[in-house]
Structures are given as structure tokens and as C-alpha cells.
Amino acid sequence: MPRKLAAGNWKMNGLAADLAQIDALLRDHMPSTAEVLICPPATLIAAMAARAHGTALQVGAQDCHTAATGAHTGDIAAPMLADAGASHVILGHSERRADHGEGSALVAAKARAAHTAGLVALICIGETEAQRDAGQTLAVVTEQLRESLPEAATAASTVIAYEPVWAIGTGRTPSIEQIAEVHDTLRAALPDPEIALLYGGSVKPSNAAEIFAIGNVDGALVGGASLKAADFGAIIAALDASR
Ligand code: PGA
Asked: Residue of the nearest CA to atom 2 in ligand 1?
């Protein structure tokens, strides 16, 4: 069985004052049987990692460069993230694919850099609404998986998040059958069947339990609902209660 993981993606949200949410999460909602990860903006990684030190809470980043050092103004290298206390890095999120033109080959190169630095790569894939309407979902996600995943990816080094682009931040989610169809297809395509497969896109306390009851869903990548400890804590509890 793959490990269960509740991962929060704070995106471009969070100031030092918001670290109070981490204190509340640790106090009221942990420990849990599932793994718990928060990926704050890079500015908060070190402070959050210090807060999480000695607890089961893991801290991650939201992107990294392909190179370990060099003349790349504004970028952050994977060894720097590890040095700041990160254990994971989200790669290929649809917002980066859209806002920064990141393609799957670049995502794979970033994942290799993450692995070299000892970070777990949390690789995101997902179809647009137009692709789903055109019946291309399974072809799109299978191709993204094949092209974004480094050859050496294992369950210890890699997590996959299926995030339909049209479900992110919209309050809309695929049907249970649609999520199951994609996750079953991805599981069969994974080089290591123990790699955890997360669902992401408008996961919230009210829908978490039914999503976690789907076979081949090992957890969630949560955006908006990860910003408040009470909401994310309810999602962690639903994951703990699943299976
Ligand atoms: P959302 O975002 O939960 O706010 O829809 C998920 C994500 O983009 O990772």
C-alpha cells in the first residue's frame, strides 16, 4: 500500500503571522497516521521548518531550478530548499505550467535536481476543461506522467498529484467515477506501484471523505483549504479515517 499523504499548497499566500496556523495544526490536529506536508512560499520555509522541528509535520517548497547553483537571478535551487529545511518540492503545478510555460521535460529535469538534493518531488499533472470535453483526459495525463517522471523515480523519492486544471480553486470537482478512472489509469502506468497518487482540486472538509474512499487515491494536494488549520485538520482526519 502506498503511504497516505495530506499535502497543503499555500501558493503565493502567507506572511510570518500566518505561521500561527502551523502552531494550531500541530496542537489540534497532529499527530496523524497519514503523512502531513505544508508547502508555504519560499520566504516561510525556514521559519516553518523551525516550528515543525521535532514533529511529524513536513515542510516543502513549490518549485526549484534544474541547476544546483549559478547565475539564475530570482530562482531557487533544490539544495537551497533542503538547506532551509524542506523535504519535498511541488513541481509542474498547472499554475507554473500556465504562468511560466513549464513543459513536462523541464519538470522532469527539475525532479532529477530535486532527487539529487534529497528532496521528494511532488509532480502535478492534469487536463484542462477543453481536453476533458474533447475526451482526451486519459491520453493527456498519461503523456504528462511519462514525460514528467524521471526514469529513476521510486515511492521514496516521488509523489504524483492528479489535479484537473478546471477543478483548481473553482469549487468544482470531477465525479467519483472520473477521479477513479484517472487514478486507476495512472496506477497502472507508474514505474513503481507504491508511488503515492494524490488528488488535487477543490478538496475541502465537506468532500474529503468521499474522495479518500476512492481506490488508488492515497491523499490530497490541497490549496485554499490548507491555509486554515481547522479546515486542513478536518481533511487530515478524513484521510486518517479512510481505508
Ligand atoms: P485548491 O488548489 O485546493 O485551492 O483547488 C489545489 C492546488 O492547486 O494544489
From this structure: 223
Sequence spans of domains, the chain: 5-241
The amino acid at residue 103 is G
Cα dihedral across residues 228, 44, 198, 165: positive or negative: positive
Which is nearest to 114 in space by CA: 59, 187, 64?
Answer: 64
Q: How far, in Å, CA of 57 to CA of 43, rounded?
A: 18
All three cell numbers of 182, joined, read 484517472
Closest C-alpha to ligand 1, atom 6: 223
Tell me which CATH homologous superfamily contains domain 5-241.
Aldolase class I (3.20.20.70)
DSSP β-bridge partners for residue 200: 221
Whole-angstrom CA distances from 44 to 98, 123, 131, 208 are 24, 21, 35, 27
Mean pLDDT by 10 residues, the chain (243 residues): 95 98 97 96 98 97 98 98 98 97 98 98 98 98 98 96 98 97 98 96 98 97 98 98 88
**Are 138 and 126 in contact, with CB atoms under 8 Å apart?**
no
Task: Name the catalytic one among 35, 115, 163, 183.
Answer: 163
- pTM of the predicted protein model: 0.98
